[in-house]
Amino acid sequence: MSTLPPLRLPHAEILEDPEILEPYRFDESHVAGDLPLAVVKPKSREDFRELVRVAKAEGFGLVPRGAGTGKAGGCVPRGRVVVVDMGAWPGGIQVSNQNLTLTAPASAWLRDVKSAAEAANLFYPPDPNSWPLCAFGGSLATNAGGPNACKYGMTRHWVLALDALMADGEIHSFGIGSVKANVGPSLAQLLIGSEGILGMITSATVRLIPKPAEFLTLLLPVENFHELLELPGRLCANGFLPSAFEFFDTAVLSELRESGPEEARRLPGKALAILEFDDRGCTSEAFIASLTGALGPVSEHLQLASESRQRDQIWNIRRLTSAFLKERHPKKISEDIVVPRDRIPAFFDGLEKLGIPAVTYGHLGDGNLHVNLLAAGEMEPLELERQVMDLFKLAVGLGGTLSGEHGIGLAKREAFLALSDPGQIELLRGLKRAWDPAGIFNPGKVI
Ligand SMILES: Cc1cc2nc3c(=O)[nH]c(=O)nc-3n(C[C@H](O)[C@H](O)[C@H](O)COP(=O)(O)OP(=O)(O)OC[C@H]3O[C@@H](n4cnc5c(N)ncnc54)[C@H](O)[C@@H]3O)c2cc1C
Predict the structure, then answer these.
(1) Is the whole model's pTM more than 0.85, yes or no?
(2) CB count, 10 Å around CB of 421?
(3) Does 426 fall in a domain?
(4) 134 alpha carbon – ligand 1 mean position (Å)
(5) For 119-139, how does the pLDDT look when each residue is reduced to its tens digit (9 = 90+)?
(6) CATH code at 160?
(7) Using one digit for the tens of pLDDT, what is the confidence trace for 270-298?
(8) Burial degree of 429 (CB within 10 A; 0-12, 13-18, 19+)
(9) Ligand 1 mean position to 126 CA, how many Å?
């Protein structure tokens, strides 16, 4: 059981009852962790100072945790660690119209960050499909991105400055709240996407833009999803940049139609794309006519979501797809590889040649494909491992990567180490040693 010395943190809540600690062994990945020594919810700089001091003295790790929606096992405890639940970290959300910025604590819900921007008629674009459920801090630490990354990029493109707890036990500030700052390499950017291995983000200032005034949301049903693959490029060549270009292949669409939520039962086509535009004037007849022309014959069965209720329904289905497939196939494995858009056809050819029985959906607009091995639970572990590794090698060989959104954590660590340039891994390890010499922050993750 717990070998933790008594923690004397002036303001933090400390949880030690094994029953309460049990859920902290998991996130939304398939990785199960160890029972942590304790869960701590810090509320002050003094709490952090003392926690870091004891962690170094007693040799235990500190695992940052936001809302636990991660899909790579990043906040899952391994070994002798205390989970640091950032949910009680104090602070409010502040929006500045003059600076076009928003500042929020890591504990804020991402949904509240997005709504605060909208309440000021501004827009914070990062939209991981978990935005109603995840924490702002978790979205920064994982560099989250969602459907609109094809137009707006990922979280890191919006972060101007942040505060983070470092290995000296103090909170340091990195960057300033302005788009212009040019004083050497950006340490704030190093912390974005670092999955808690370099320090703990306590708050951040992000850039905002004016809120889009109108949306055109379209369903594009096709007979075969291969018909969709060249469309992102064709649209751009004709001056259209969708704010989302998502797709479901035939197998995923059939599952949704057969047993998905009520709205999903009416989804058209053998395969389907969801397209969205948020340009000024995108709902005009002229825009739609020009778009239809650019899409060509494939637009024959195009359907427009004419009311915001329909738009919400469509996005609701898309957002719930991951959870829905998981419910139907609890042991499925989902990988979120990326290939450059012009290599997507080659990727699907390669998948077929390898004989990997996968179904896919995801973000066609940026080449981030959610490849699901639904029968993973019934496969021999070694065969499953081989197929997943072949999948990663295929993506990397085509100029892509192992993860577009979810990160490395524990789930992809081995593959990341095996498939990366050893020189790059050495540099990363050197960085970790320099920032965290005692190795207290999220030990055993990523590298
Ligand atoms: C249904 C569903 C849909 C999803 N869709 C997407 C998607 O479209 N795009 C996407 O990018 N992700 C997606 N995800 C994954 C996940 O929601 C995101 O990675 C999210 O950003 C994680 O936030 P969290 O607060 O839950 O972080 P957690 O899961 O708690 O933590 C994630 C990682 O960040 C670290 N961490 C957390 N807080 C901090 C902090 N304050 N400082 C330092 N490190 C910290 C943790 O140690 C861990 O390594 C999805 C997940 C689900 C369940």
Answers:
(1) yes
(2) 8
(3) no
(4) 6
(5) 999 999 999 999 999 999 999
(6) 3.30.465.10
(7) 999 999 999 999 999 999 999 999 999 99
(8) exposed
(9) 13
